[in-house]
Model the fold of this input.
Amino acid sequence: MGLYASILTFFITLFMGIPVGVCLGITGVVGVLFMGQPMIVVAQRMFTGLDSFPLMAIPFFILAGEIMNRGQITDRLIRFADLIVGRIRGALAHANIIASMFFGGITGSAAADTSSIGAMLIPAMIKQGYDPAFTAAVTASSSLQGPIIPPSILAVIYGATMGESIGALFAAGIPIGILFGVSDMIVVISQAKRKNFPKTILRLSWREKLDVISQALLALIMPIIILGGMFTGIFTPTEAAAVSVGYAFVISLFVLRTISLKDMPQVLYNAALTTASIFLLLATARLFGMVLTNYQVPQLVEKAIIGIAGNNKIAVTLIINAILLLVGCFMDPGAAIIMLAPTLVPLAKAIGMHSIQFGMLMITNLTLGLITPPVGLCLFIASDLAHLPMEKVARALVPFLLIHIVVVLMVSFMPDLVLFVPRLLKYA
Done:
């Protein structure tokens, strides 16, 4: 009875439009009441859910990204990307994708990517003659590189939840994130000639080109410092996140001089607000996960999947993919990882899948939910920036979504693709 009441509470609150973090909290409270536990358990479980040293990396990465974003680094990355692909048909669409790849290596946030790059490139692309729905679609789709390319907040959450090496997950995310970007570019290329996308010819002198490159490289050095320090063992992921804040502050305030000390209160406020929303999700997801564990939901899910697929590795993997894709349409990826990883990782290991590979499988599947109805955050942001109905942008996203699913299947069935870089760096 308690399990049914909890599930019913979750879906009722979700479809009422209540934020997911609050939905999970209310559902957890209902579950605890039916379990006959005292209410102090709610506070204890939420606190212990956040009592993890690796999770300290999240606010630091968010603050570093906010400083760089406030320092107008987006414009520099876009100009650099345009310099690379300016002579290709559909250049601005390709620049959008490449800029998202660079931006993702700084912020690790798909929503920040869509907002920052979309605010600049969506109007510019529409002005050049791109279809508005396609423009919004390529912006939303390319932003998915953010949570995959390191530093990835989702990788930190998965690593902290399952006790997995965050460095290994960061290493695994490099080729997968690039593959997501390449797949977006394939869609653009396939439509460029048919829709007569324009080229962008930047008539810059060598001095101007060097200036564009130097300013962009100042931003791109930050992920190199983060990853290089981690992979060489100089500092931990949490220490790397703190170093990234220091680097972003010095570069933005003293070198580029794009922010001042007067800007810092707003920067800190924005970073605190984003961190609070993420940590609320993590805390309430832990509470809800405890309720599910108490009612033996993980065991029920495992039995159901084995009952349908038996010991067939391909069938089990496809069912897990389907579950994750469906969950991603309704739930925040971070909360879903905390709730589902303890249930699904043992099942994945039982069919011979490495936990790092499964981590990337979870992250890529759940990330797709950011561009799918009914609660796709990046889909809504891009639609709003393009002043279009969500349904129209969702239709334009279909080819991007399909090719991303192909990439997810590659992650599912090609372990060497995922584990090559972690093995190269002696993580796996």
